[in-house]
Write a structure and sequence with these properties.
heterodimer, A: alpha/beta, Rossmann fold, 11 helices, disordered N terminus, B: mainly beta, 5-stranded antiparallel sheet, 5 strands
């Protein structure tokens, strides 16, 4: 059903009804620039990949054919394969540079999130590690991913959300309002765990689970943090960002505020990252589901060896 | 032929860009727009969507499934 509806789309990749928060072309440029030396900046991706591999370990079945969307250099697929639970993982990234380096793990393609080039119901599992926070239409993408799954196939994705980079956002906002008399978007507002949980059900996924995991990385200063974000390909790609270089004055003031407000006794500054993980399953008759009310075959009172009282009659 | 491939690519035969695309990848790939079938033109390194009238390039063994990167097919008669 879902796939048929997509057949009618015209050649434009963009659904005009989706609000555009992100400049996806800019994000892809950031990603392409990061690809050459990504392995020096992949600690966060590694954290995300280890978490997804841990989840996979807990599932008592194998996944012969899988998709890794937003694969970067193939780091996640590498970790997934180490669990011995996946066989073939097709890797997709919006940028050629990353897809090319992911080929050491197996097939890789370049693909956009809004037009996934896969036939429906082919995959045993769909994975994604720390890429989906740059997607404007997350509900639409989850629905597409759900359509790619075989019955009882698993969706297991993580992305940055919640309190991610809130110190950086606050410091820049204060510095900018002092210096420029207003603020411009510097770090994306993040999806909250409370908002994303419902998306799984909306995408038609059963047994949905959403959870968040916070980690704090200490940096010597804001400049090192910014350099890391660039190295990860995670720098500002907001549609509404200022399209001119940030002044040195603003950077220095933001660094000062960051230090004053969040600095630790040893002089380092903490940067928060929140990894949101979503798990869901393509519906299948073998899955547990609630019984219809009134369908019980045994009385609860019998099991408890007690007498059932009529709720109307006061004791 | 093999001299063209750098040391990184010889780790694994499947990683050789000169190799044809993996059959398991071809089995799941469809046109990103029409979701219709693709024809694999191995000599020309293209995946052709007749319904869309475009050919998607394969570079260094990586299919580029982006409409912006696809080549328009020459119009061949009515269909």
């Amino acid at each position: 059903m879902i796939v048929r509806a997509m057949d009618k789309r015209d050649t434009s990749a963009m659904n005009p009804e989706i609000p555009r928060l992100f400049d996806y072309a800019q994000h892809c440029r950031n990603r392409t620039r990061a690809a050459a030396s990504f392995s020096e900046f992949d600690f966060l991706k590694t954290e995300g990949a280890l978490r997804l591999a841990d989840r996979l370990e807990l599932v008592r079945r194998d996944f012969p054919l899988c998709l890794d969307f937003g694969c970067h250099d193939g780091l996640l697929t590498n970790h997934l394969k180490q669990t011995g639970k996946v066989e073939m993982v097709i890797q997709a990234d919006p940028t050629f540079e990353f897809a090319k380096s992911a080929r050491v793990n197996g097939p890789a393609i370049v693909s956009e999130a809004e037009q996934l080039p896969f036939a429906p119901a082919m995959f045993d599992a769909v994975f994604s590690c720390l890429s989906l926070h740059w997607i404007d239409d997350l509900p639409g993408l989850l629905t597409q991913m759900r359509a790619l799954l075989k019955p009882d196939g698993m969706l297991l994705v993580s992305f940055l959300g919640g309190s991610t980079l809130n110190e950086l956002r606050t410091s820049f906002a204060e510095a900018e309002s002092e210096i420029a008399g207003g603020i411009s978007p510097r770090a994306a507002l993040m999806a909250d765990i409370r908002d994303v949980g419902g998306l799984l059900g909306r995408a038609g996924l059963a047994l949905p689970v959403a959870d968040a995991d916070r980690l704090t990385i200490n940096y010597p200063d804001l400049f090192r943090l910014m350099a890391d974000l660039r190295g990860m390909g995670e720098q500002n790609a907001l549609q509404q960002r200022l399209r001119k270089p940030t002044s040195r004055q603003l950077f220095f003031r933001a660094a000062q505020i960051y230090q004053e407000r969040y600095g630790q006794p040893d002089g380092s500054i903490p940067a928060s990252f929140e990894i949101i993980t979503l798990t869901g399953w393509a519906p299948h008759e073998s899955q547990q589901r609630p019984l219809r009310p009134g369908s019980a075959s045994h009385r609860l009172a019998d099991s408890l060896d007690t007498i059932e009282h009529d709720p109307q009659s006061k004791p | 032929m093999t001299q063209d491939i750098d040391a990184k690519d010889t780790r694994n035969a499947a990683d050789d860009p000169a190799q044809p695309l993996d059959s398991r990848l071809l089995a799941v790939l469809v046109c990103p727009v029409t979701k219709g079938p693709l024809e694999y033109d191995a000599p020309n390194k293209e995946l052709i969507s007749r319904q869309l009238g475009k050919a998607f390039p394969i570079r260094a063994g990586v299919p580029i499934m982006l409409v912006d990167e696809a080549r328009d097919l020459e119009t061949e008669g009515s269909q």
